[in-house]
Amino acid sequence: MLQSELRRALYLSCLCATVTGILLGRYSPPLALIAIISVLAGLTAGMSLVFPGWWKAIVVPGAFMALGAFLMFLAASGARGGILPRLALDKTSATVTGQVVSTPHRAGDCLYFFVEAAAVETGASCWETGERVLVRTVVNGDAGGVFSGVRVEVRGRLRHEQDNPGWLLDKGAASILESPLSGIKVVGGADIVSRWVHQSRNWMTGAYGRLFRERVAGFIEGVTLGRKDNLDPGIMSDLRACGLSHIVAVSGLHVAAVVALVLAAASALGAGRLSRLILACAAAMFVVALAGFRPSALRASVMAGLCFGGMLLGRKNDPLNGLCLAGFLLMFANPRALFDPGFQFSFAATLGIVIAMRSSARKGRTIMLVAVCAGAQLGIIPMMLSRGEGVPVTAIAANLAVVPLVGPLMASAWGACLLSALTPTGGKLLAVVPEALSRLIISIAGLLSKVPGAGVGGALSIAALVLYVSGLVALVVRVRERRSVFGPLVAVTCSVLLAVAPMFIAVAFRSPNSITVLDVGQGDAILIRDRSGAVVLIDGGPDERQVTAKLRSRGVRKIDVMVSSHPHADHITGLVGVIGEFPVGLLIDSGVRAETSACEELLEAARLKGVSHRVAREGQVIEVSPHLRLEVVFEPELSPERENLNNCSVVIMVHLDGAKALLTADLEKEGQLVMLGLYPDLSCDILKVPHQGALDAALPELVESADPALGVISVGEGNTYGHPSEQHLEMLEERGVRVLRTDLVGDIEISVDSGRIGVAAGGG
Fold first, then answer.
1. C-alpha pair distances (Å), 621 with each of 524, 612, 616, 628
2. Which of 12-21, 258-267, 353-362 has the lowest mean pLDDT?
3. Out of 121, 251, 258, 606, which residue is the most buried by the measure of CB atoms under 10 Å away?
4. What is the mean pLDDT of the chain?
5. Phi, psi torsion values for 307, nearest 5 degrees
6. CA angle at residue 661 from 657 to 666, to 5 degrees?
């Protein structure tokens, strides 16, 4: 027993050492890496001499760390130091010949895929190489015969990724080849496996389109193929908000579900032990192939292979050791897999499950499934928090309800496809099963996504997070000790109640018509919704991830109108993340361009995703819905000083179900005077105080013209600017304006019903 525990500890320490080594190789300069490895080697040798009985536990992890660092350093250096990055410095026109090594991905009117170059030609010169390059082309229709495995010749212009080269390097490339579609030519066929995978995925996508309605077909594609191109963004948002996004990213869950069904069927048919294991391995590889050989699915497949191989050799299976071995194999074969988000979340969830269930006594299947879900959540919560995402406190309930349905959904969907090839009528009849399962899952996700996620954005949200994590830990411990899990489940339930509490702390009433000033720190982000489901987002705050997480936690699925008031970082940065994650109908901006990456990224993202773009003009009215109207009352063409971006702010009067809100962005006194000259009467119910309530944020004349019942200030807690100023707060108080601040109360949700307003505050 002690020996097996020591072996597990050694495997786990080697896995951690490998991850550390890969991170060192990725982010350390060459000389620093050499110095670090030299110091670690010296420490390892010294500790081995001091503790001779423990030399293996010291030397082996050190060797794994050094190997991981070396392999990653070679991979990164090979990508950065090749011929393609040197040619990209001068934006050279080139012809690259090589093999497509990724599934083409479409974003808006652009198509992206990676090519493993065999040769590159610039006209005067030709080089043989083995580097990887990202090909980017504009397409209006079908991309032709381009898929993973085919050999292509691409003519275009090489360039570097300017804003975020790290993501490209993590994919094994350091340059982009921009080419017209006419410049891409298929010059060689793919191998039999790649061709089968491509044809199978396309055939199944076509079959889904014939068997199911569009919304369900896109969902089933995600569950069975890991393909999200046709997945409804609203469904994806719901899945994320309740901790179910993993069901449309083919991973260990899908491999395990299919393997379990195959083993059960083989046992029922009386197959022998060897036959069952061979069928299970084949089923695992089938799922991995249909998923396009995603790293997360490969990890599960390798684990299954190790497990079945050990069983054939008569070895006792240890899931933790199997997970570590799978990690070694995948990361040594491709150290860049560590930077794939799907692999990270899948591995972390599996590690949490394995650790949580190790040595646990078998109880009822439901209790074991609860413990599995708890372990998976504990594994990924640190990663979610580090990415600025809210933690879905409904994840346990969602997974308990949905995970058992994934295997039957996959099997019945594939069965319907196969049957439809023989008899379309029979396929349609069988398709009733996966359609019903899909609609059930979508409904569950839609219901549970209404519960806000817990996080670090407010007192109640933090309390919900602490209670949720404590409940999960206690639940795992209780299952392992064969004790009652009633207390931990009560704690998890209470965390849900705490998460939804801010939705009910209201001064008057709540309504589906709402204006929510989101607490995004020192910046602005305002969410507007009405009873018809229309959604408007005005500005996005200073953090690319924060506002996206807040929108998800509030169940937002799409943005009808997005407004960028002016291109300062504390207003525009978050919009870049939002437009990348949510479907957006219309982008309205000031038309003023700033020399910032966020400004360019926003416009480029809008172009890539096919978002309509309009420059704000004074007097412009946008009828978002019968209940919601936006009126532009100030824009940069009216500004007395164009060099001051604050005075180039777009100011909007929001008309929502009989109430009016004046959203002034950061407009300063000079701009306010011009606006008052055009609109002497700006009477409204709600005034968004400009510029975080600075000393001269809102002129007394503006406050008197607006005469609001409520003033809201979006400001960061403990900011170094001294916002809001005491003098300004006193001025608002003297004029009878009730003031709410995001730094004191968190998110401020203002409900509107036939002109009446009610306030709910305290959300994170």
1. 22, 16, 10, 11
2. 353-362
3. 251
4. 81
5. -60, -50
6. 155
Report residue 189's pLDDT band, with 50, 70 and 90 as the boundaries.
Answer: confident
Tens digits of residue pLDDT in 634-670: 998 888 777 788 888 999 999 998 889 999 988 888 8
Nearest-angstrom CA–CA distance, 96 and 117: 6
Contact 648, 639 (CB under 8 A): yes
Cβ neighbourhood burial of 576 (10 Å; 0-12, 13-18, 19+): buried
The DSSP symbol for 454 reads B
Distance CA 748, CA 752 (A): 13
Nearest-angstrom CA–CA distance, 617 and 636 = 8
Taking each helix axis as running N to C, give the angle between helix 2-27 and helix 55-80, from 0 to 180 degrees, rounded to the nearest 10: 30
Number of helices followed by number of strands (H, E) in the chain: 26, 23
* Residue 435 near residue 739 (C-beta atoms within 8 A): no
Which position has the token pair 């001051």?
644
**What are the residues whose beta carbons fall under 8 Å from the beta carbon of 380, sequence distance 6 or more?**
345, 348, 349, 352
Token pair belonging to 492: 């998890």
Distance, in Å, from the CA atom of 493 to the CA atom of 392, rounded to the nearest integer, reads: 12
What residue type is 283 in one-letter code? A
Tell me how far CA of residue 159 lies from CA of 92, 93, 178, 310, 424, in angstroms: 8, 9, 8, 49, 49
Tell me the helix, strand and coil percentages in the chain, rounded to 5.
55, 15, 30
Global pTM value: 0.65
Continuous segment of H or E residues that includes residue 304:
helix 295-312
- What the block records as the tokens of 231 is 């997945």
User: Stretch 317-345: mean pLDDT, rounded?
Assistant: 79
For the stretch 676-734, pLDDT in tens is: 988 888 999 999 998 877 776 778 888 889 988 889 998 887 666 677 888 888 888 88
User: CA of 129: how far to CAs of 75, 121, 133, 159, in Å?
Assistant: 14, 11, 11, 17
- The mean-pLDDT minimum among 55-59, 152-156, 203-207, 731-735 falls in 55-59
Structural domains in the chain, CATH included, are 2-80 (no CATH), 83-190 (2.40.50.140), 198-453 (no CATH), 504-763 (3.60.15.10)
Cβ pair 331, 70 in contact under 8 A: no
Q: What is the mean pLDDT of residues 735-745?
A: 83
574 alpha carbon, distance to own chain's centre: 14
d(CA 761, CA 205): 46
Alpha helix positions (H), 171-213: 192-211
Could you give the CA distance from residue 516 to residue 526 in angstroms, rounded to a whole number?
A: 6
Residue identified by tokens 């933790």 is 320
Q: Kindly report the number of other CB atoms within 10 A of residue 512's CB atom.
A: 14
- Residue 129, pLDDT above cutoff 80: yes
By CB atoms closer than 10 A (0-12, 13-18, 19+), residue 450 is middle
Confidence of residue 420 (pLDDT cuts 50, 70, 90): very high
Could you report the per-residue pLDDT of 593-619, keeping only the tens digit for each? 765 677 878 888 887 777 888 889 988
φ and ψ of 711, to 5 deg: -115, 135
User: Other C-beta atoms within 10 Å of 41: how many?
Assistant: 15
Do residues 635 and 731 lie in contact, with contact meaning Cβ atoms separated by under 8 Å?
A: no
Spatial separation of the C-alpha atoms in residues 577 and 584, rounded to whole Å: 12
Residues with Cβ within 8 Å of residue 233, at least 6 apart in sequence: 557, 558, 582, 583
Task: Tell me the pLDDT tens digit for each residue of 437-495.
Answer: 999 999 998 888 777 777 765 677 788 889 999 998 998 888 877 788 888 888 888 88
Cα–Cα distance measured from residue 662 to residue 659, given in angstroms and rounded to the nearest whole number: 10
pLDDT higher than 80, residue 343: no
SS3 749: strand
Residues 6+ apart with CB under 8 A from 499: 393, 451, 452, 453, 454, 460, 461, 464
- Alpha-carbon torsion (482, 488, 493, 495), positive or negative: negative
